[in-house]
Specification:
52% helix
Length: 151
């Protein structure tokens, strides 16, 4: 039987996929929604863990008391019921050009290459927030609860 750590690790892997700076808006949004759903469902995994590390009611109460985690709950429930607009989930993508400079010591030459970097932002608490920053905030919220239980 799996324990809550499986979901925790999955949540962190989804966060890592959000660091990928390529792909279209839909792919970036898919990674964000998968992260938000996995993040919110940590409460279920904690509550259903055989070790009963944290009772389900307490994990749910904690998640809904956190602005970041409760936003994940709204995203999760909104996407489940096809009502994201009603939940006021607004996403945007910014694109910047980055130049990578490289030195090729064996060839004695320098080179550069330009690439487009895309980043997903979301409207949260009245401002545009980088999705990676939001994800880090969510993980920190769960970490705080787990640390309080010496995990």
């Amino acid at each position: 039987m799996s324990d809550w750590r499986e979901q925790y690790d999955r949540m962190k892997r989804w966060r890592e996929t959000m660091k990928l700076e390529s792909g279209d808006r839909e792919r970036l949004a898919d990674h964000f929604f998968a992260f938000a759903q996995t993040c919110y469902h940590m409460a279920d995994w904690l509550g259903n863990d055989p070790s009963k590390v944290i009772p389900k009611s307490e994990a749910n109460k904690y998640a809904l008391s956190s602005p970041a985690l409760s936003f994940c709950a709204a995203i999760c429930n909104g996407s489940k019921h096809a009502q994201l607009e009603a939940k006021h989930v607004e996403l945007s993508v910014t694109e910047t050009t980055v130049t990578d400079y490289r030195f090729y010591p064996n060839e004695g030459r320098k080179g550069s290459q330009e690439r487009a970097m895309r980043r997903l932002h979301l409207e949260w608490q009245g401002e545009s927030v980088l999705a990676l920053v939001f994800a880090d905030r969510c993980i920190a919220e769960w970490d705080q609860l787990l640390r309080s239980r010496a995990y």
